[in-house]
Design a protein that fits this description.
This protein starts with a strand and ends in a 6-residue tail after the last helix. It has two domains: about 80 residues, F0F1 ATP synthase delta/epsilon subunit, N-terminal (ATP Synthase, domain 1, Sandwich); about 45 residues, Single alpha-helices involved in coiled-coils or other helix-helix interfaces (Up-down Bundle), CATH 1.20.5.440. The protein contains two helices and nine strands, in the order E-E-E-E-E-E-E-E-E-H-H. It is elongated and about 55 Å long. Strands 1, 2, 3, 4, 5, 6, 7, 8 and 9 form a nine-stranded mixed β-sheet that branches. With about 140 residues, it is of the alpha+beta class.
């Protein structure tokens, strides 16, 4: 089926993406899923990961998403993320500092009884994903 689907990526703070896409591939909680125009409607949770899409001109775009929800309709995909950044907007110094902090927190696990391992693990996952996206083919959105 020819045509584009509308993609909206929003967070509590901002609209990150609002444009037509040829295809959208998102990190679903139970696996990656792809959406084309005319897709069956569904709602799902997202995990921390990389949202990829081809814009209306065919260029690949990548967005970091920090969990959230995806609503898929036949003509529109709406991503409601806790936070999200286009690849070009990822601050690599900040992401690397977050990675270092998360690694240090995880190293403390054996020394503290009140340590929140899951929180540190999620922080590490966010940092690693941002760095991976930020380092991949810099210069594109």
């Amino acid at each position: 089926m020819a045509g584009n689907i509308m993609l909206e990526v929003v967070t509590p703070d901002k609209a990150v993406v609002s444009e037509e896409a040829q295809i959208v591939v998102a990190p679903g909680e139970y696996g990656e899923f792809g959406v084309l125009i005319g897709h069956t409607s569904f709602l799902t949770t997202l995990k921390i990961g990389m949202l990829r899409y081809k814009d209306s001109g065919g260029a690949e775009r990548i967005v970091f998403v920090n969990g959230g929800f995806a609503e898929v309709l036949p003509d529109k995909v709406t991503i409601l993320a806790e936070s999200a950044d286009r690849r070009r907007d990822i601050d690599m110094d900040r992401a690397k500092a977050a990675l270092k902090r998360a690694e240090e927190r995880l190293a403390e696990v054996s020394r503290r009884e009140d340590f929140n391992f899951r929180r540190a693990e999620i922080a590490l996952q966010r940092a690693v994903t941002r760095i991976k996206i930020g380092e991949a083919r810099r210069g594109t959105a």
